[in-house]
Amino acid sequence: MKKLQLFTIALLLTVATGAWATDWYKIQVTVSDKTFTQYSTLPYSKKVGECYQTVTGYNPPEGITVTNVTKENGTNVTIGTLSNWDTSITITAGGSATVNATLSATGEDIAGIVIFEIAVTQISSWESGDCTVMLDGGKLIVKKTDPSSATGAMADYQTNNIPWNDYIGDITKIVIDDGVTRIGNLAFASCNNASLTSVTIPASVTSIGEYAFDECSKLATVTFADGSQLTTIGDAAFNRCAALTSVTIPASVTSIGEGAFLDCTNLATVTLKSNPHIDGGAFLDIKDGATVKMELTAHEGATGEYWMTFYNFGYNFEADANTQIFKALFDGSRLFLTELTTDKIVKYSKPVIMKSTSATITMTLVSDEGSNNFSSNYLSGVKDPAGKDADGYTYVLNKGANGVGFYKLADGKTLGVGKVYLYTGGVESNFFGFDDETTELNEVKCKMSEVRGDIFFDLSGRRVTNPKKGIFIHNGKKFFNR
């Protein structure tokens, strides 16, 4: 642990009487601070007599220079000399100082004073991977150490080596600066001060480590900043956050770890904006009767029709009242959609196509597997977290130049976990469209004379010695003998 000095500078423009009292001014200040150059230019625009926003940094600045004061109408105000300012001033053990700058307005007899009130206190800090963690009173602050670095990952910890563990009971607020990219394992575990009721995860964070907020028992609100880039919520990341009542997980998330929200006994509503891979027990033992739902965006087809696919390997989900669900049969040349009407439950590990009258399809987690018959379904779902690479015969539902339908997955592309695809096994086409329940695919045609070799199979895998008219497999590809 090392000690830093935290400084704050409050700016206040004061006058006795005269026109200045109703005008607005902009003060530009330069703080000479070799370490924290991001505070070098500080523009403000406030009315005379109001306190300007406080400037904060770490380690006191070597000096302050007033560089320009401008009235609202653009008229410059002449800067007088700084008084009572010693550039070598140092406050090592905490304290305060006041610095006055005398200003005079060109063409006016009114004089004003800019007062810089400087207060310095000592704080504790620790290095954590690419970050610096600082304890300012009850506020635990995480900043990327090098603002120019592309990475901002905290270190991972175990229960016996969390550097700020001795202060855990005193932490009343956690501030994670934008620029931090990963929250480390156990980083804030057991921070259960009664005042620590909320935390905001900045958009820059892509991963939350295992047990990162474990047993933050008073944490009632977790907010993910707009534009979130978060992809992974680690195992038990929010385990035993008993005060948490609701959470909305951003669309960028692709993986939620085992027991991520285990034993969040008051968690009543979970809203996912994507269809991520959800490990076992992620929402186990949350509040009785809790709702876990996905709000998914579908592709617009014909007017008033919206299409998408759905697959979740571990859990059963029920579609909303506006949505129909289909399985697909592929016979080598045609794709048939069959609506599943027994109920609206999509059983775990069963990929489907969905059609809705709404652009947003809501899927709700249920324990019931339903009674739909998913046999003879030629759709596949991606289970592997690494995804599925394009191979020339993989097609995905999308909206393109030909409207909504199955388009070939482009070379070099990878289909993410939880996605659905149609594998044609050798039949190629740029686009497989559909109209309601039946889809006619572009046929692959050739003459027998164009096929070399004598080993053929029918679509059931049986060897055929003298293939007649129809579809057969030859050298791993399907062809139509006419």
Q: What does it look like?
A:
The chain is mainly beta. Helix content is 0%, strand content 44%. The strands form nine sheets. Strands 1, 2, 3, 4, 5, 6, 7, 8, 9, 10 and 11 form an eleven-stranded mixed β-sheet that branches. A hairpin with a 5-residue loop joins strand 39 and strand 40 (463-464). It is elongated. The protein starts with a strand and ends with a strand.
Topology record:
Blueprint: E1 2-15, E2 24-32, E3 41-47, E4 55-58, E5 63-71, E6 76-83, E7 95-104, E8 111-128, E9 131-136, E10 139-144, E11 173-176, E12 182-183, E13 198-201, E14 207-208, E15 221-224, E16 232-233, E17 246-249, E18 255-256, E19 269-272, E20 277-278, E21 291-297, E22 299-300, E23 306-310, E24 316-319, E25 323-330, E26 334-339, E27 345-346, E28 352-356, E29 360-366, E30 379-381, E31 388-389, E32 394-400, E33 403-408, E34 414-415, E35 420-423, E36 431-433, E37 438-440, E38 445-446, E39 456-457, E40 463-464, E41 470-474, E42 477-481
Parallel strand pairs: 10-11, 12-14, 13-15, 14-16, 16-18, 17-19, 18-20, 19-21, 38-42
Antiparallel strand pairs: 1-4, 1-8, 2-3, 2-5, 5-6, 6-7, 7-8, 8-9, 9-10, 21-29, 22-23, 23-28, 24-27, 24-29, 25-26, 25-28, 26-37, 30-35, 31-34, 32-33, 32-35, 33-36, 39-40, 41-42
